[in-house]
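Two folds, back to back.
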Amino acid sequence: MLGTGRDAHIAAAYYGLDGMGGRSLRVVGGEYGLTYERVRQIAAASVEKLESGHPFAPALDRAIELVSESIPATAAEIEAKLRARGLTASSFRLEGVLRAAELFGRVAPFSITEVKGSRLVHGRNSTPKRDGGSFNSVMRIAWRAASRWGVANLAGVVAQVRKTQSRRCDKDLVESILTCREGFRWLDQAAGWFWFADVPRNPALNRMMKILSVANPVRAAELRAGIARDHRMRGISAPLHVLLELCRQLPGLRVYDDKVRAKSAIDPEDVLDEAERKMAYALSGNGGVMARAKLESICMQMGVKRSTFYHHLLYSPILANYAAGVYGLIGAEMA
């Protein structure tokens, strides 16, 4: 349609019809030893014949249809589909498809937006400032949730995004945005549970390490209960199988049956604060379980402040309330 010969190749390079996504006039000019003005003239002349009528382009029509059926998704995924279906002979960037649609008088019902280095393809009506909200806002909300609890849920993220947007948020678009991030990991895709492996201080993992420093191995149900004791972890409650999947994905842990084990012993000095270490020491020296009054007396003698003692009694993940007024280390065997 652009003709043959050198000029056709120059126009194809500029418009992205060579599969490279399009280059600037200066870049194309540098490749062919021409001024950018000369490249502009060649490109303009090559498309003059396309400005009238509706050129027959069945491959382009099928490509647009395939992209529309596949969104939202990453550009790389859809580009692979185009090649697998034989609509492109080699890797062909979707920016070229958009430009071809414009040149050939087609309406392409999709857009491409770069998110954290990944190119996301979405519907024109799901642009960042409309249904899907700001891409950065979606990522920020998800990151905040994962940073607070260690894991997050897609439905919860969508609900938070909808609170900040005037229009309805597209769940599939939010999912595509999140999966673009390199550290994103599914824990249960069907139920929407996920985490970010690159969260610098994962609160769920930090509490797991505390628990495993005094009980290794520990039953999964006790591990979940210990994590949930901290008032800062309230607001989300991951199912047991989700917690176990998180443990499977963590390199230092091993899951077998209903128990979780740290592959290497965890030194309490490395993960517990001073008051927790003293409380753990007091309990381990008395069978692991004791009455609150006696535990308080011993801890006071060891220099633990009363306010700190009661804070940890209520919230520390290494402790458990076994009966009225009876506390012990998590995982302790009751006589």
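---
second:
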Amino acid sequence: MIGLMSDPVEQVCGALDALGISYERYTHPAVFTSEEAAEHWAGIVATRVKNLFLRNKKGDRHYLVILEVGKEADLRRLVKVIGDDRLSFGSPQRLMGNLGLTPGSVSPFGLLNDSRNAVTVIIDEDLRGADRLIFHPNINKASLTISVPDFQRFLASRGNVVRWLRI
């Protein structure tokens, strides 16, 4: 697991640099909700997203669901879209065990810590039309913007199952 480096921002930036992916980096005070983040994202030209770490009823499948911050995540409907049984939020222990992250820092960059490729990534189809997306780099005291094609390159480098679905 890479995620135990002392600075998660440097870990993520190093991984993106190694892939030749460009990004813009921003620092801000720690934020725990998308509303708090919005205060610090004002003026940043990027589509704001939220990242939900979910598990199925048995706890044997985990999902990272990425959608625009203003979109509602109806878990009952999402179950039908994904094709699994009941979904609920994963515990902080599951989040740490699967993505090496803590609540408030959920990000697709946590896939750097998923050496088993155990987490399926579900991305709302509407995000394909965005120019840039904004994510925390595995800590909630910073944000990175990245183009959608570069984000897709990052995801392809990880080996996790990625599904673009209409949420």
